[in-house]
Amino acid sequence: MMMDVTPTVLTAAGLTPPADVDGTALFTGSTPERTLTWEYAGQQAIRCGAWKLVTDPAERLGAPQTPGTHLYNLVDDPTESHNLATEHPEVLTALIAANQTWSDTLTSWRAS
């Protein structure tokens, strides 16, 4: 994630990132488990462990969006070729709920 760039560069330079710098230094050898969320050009995505949920994805930047929800296991399918939404409804439901919570928070931040 882009937020990891600053702590990674500081760590590579032999410096300790300040406590208020968000992100993870990737050269430390240990990346904590975390849920990542993002939004770009009408798409939303959430990643939790091996799983990634994408809503209204586009094949590439600038390409038309495909309406719907897509679920991928990035360990087994790093190219995001096989939508597993129907095969793993429990994972789908959990990630949709987590994404909705994040989306609601994002909406409230934008309103304030």
Q: What does this protein look like?
A:
- This protein is of the alpha+beta class and 112 residues long.
- The chain is 28% helix and 20% strand.
- The protein contains 2 helices and 4 strands, in the order αββββα.
- It has a 4-stranded antiparallel beta sheet with strand order 1-2-3-4, covered by helices on one side.
- A hairpin with a 2-residue loop joins strand 1 and strand 2.
- The model has no long low-confidence stretch (mean pLDDT 84).
How do the strands and helices of this protein lay out in sequence?
Blueprint: H1 5-12, E1 35-40, E2 43-48, E3 51-55, E4 69-73, H2 89-111
Compute the separation of the termini in Å.
26 Å
Rg from Cα: 16 Å
Strand content bin? 15-25%
Q: If helices are DSSP runs of H or I spanning 4 or more residues, what is the number of helices?
A: 2
Helices and strands: which structural class?
alpha+beta
Number of strands: 4
For the sheet with most strands, the description reads:
4 strands, antiparallel
Q: Helix coverage percent of residues?
A: 25-40%
User: Low-confidence spans: pLDDT under 50, at least 5 residues?
Assistant: none
| Spatial strand sequence of the major β-sheet | 1-2-3-4
Q: Shape, please?
A: globular
**What is the mean predicted local confidence, pLDDT?**
84
List SSEs in N-to-C order.
Answer: HEEEEH
Features:
single chain; 112 residues; alpha+beta; four-stranded antiparallel β-sheet; 2 helices
